[in-house]
Amino acid sequence: MRAGEDGAIVTFDGCVRNHSHGRSTLYLEYEAYESMALEKMREIGKQLHAQFAIDRVAMVHRLGRLEIGETSVFIAVSAAHRGAAFEACRWAIDTLKSTVPIWKKEFFADGAVWAEGAIPAASAAGTEAPSGAASLGKRAS
Amino acid sequence: MGGMTAKVLFFGRLREIVGCSEELYDLTDGAPIGGIFAYYAERCPRLAEFRSSVVPSRNREFVDWETPVHSGDEVAFLPPVSGG
Question: What is the ipTM score, two decimals?
């Protein structure tokens, strides 16, 4: 990530919270439409480069069962100056959460529910061409 | 005749309702993607109540319900996304 011309690296570390809507969460399970999710994540990287004065982007989302406190999503953005890095990182996680086909199921002591989620706009389509590292990690259980 | 199919994928709660994550659908070439959903909603009536929150995709791009589907296409019905 870090290059000589960079003056800032902003990271976002999304982790599993121990509660949801007033209930204690035991753990989460994530699933994805993996091929489409990777395409959408690469599109986000491409859009970041078009919209912000940044250098590099890394974006990872984990799948499968995750325990409280574990990282589910991690994004890093490098740039010459911190402003662009902060803005781009914020835009990346917001866009990931509203457009990338990944789903989480929340498990509680008395049952499980699919998280409410966001409805992607049908116009959230884009083009290919990767411009950074994107990956989905599945833990063998 | 023969062999005109689309691959249909289900995720999250839709996968649980339909009871499978992937199926081959016998296709009339160019039929709208909404017709495929209607077929599954007839087979699994609980699907219908989620239609307003489902976004269809064809070949890994979000599309609208009128989009025509052709043989070999990969179709999916995506519930609201909740990554992060």
Answer: 0.95
Q: The whole model's pTM is what? A: 0.92
Provide, rounded to the nearest whole percent, the portion of chain B with pLDDT above 90: 96
């009128």: which residue's tokens?
Answer: B66
Backbone angles phi, psi at A115, to 5 degrees: -60, 150
Contact B83 A32 (CB under 8 A): yes
Residue B81 in this model has a pLDDT that exceeds 60: yes
Rounded to whole angstroms, the Cα distance separating B30 from B33 reads: 9
Quick one: closest CA in A to B22, which residue?
A33
Which domains are present in chain A? 8-138 (3.90.1170.40)
Identify any residues that bridge with B22 across adjacent strands, giving them in sequence order: B9
Residues of chain A contacting residue B79, judged by C-beta atoms under 8 Å apart: 103, 114, 117
Interface of A with B (CB under 8 A): 14, 30-33, 35-37, 39, 61, 72-73, 93, 96-105, 114-125
What are the sequence ranges of the domains in chain B?
5-78
> According to CATH, what is the number of the domain B5-78?
3.10.20.30
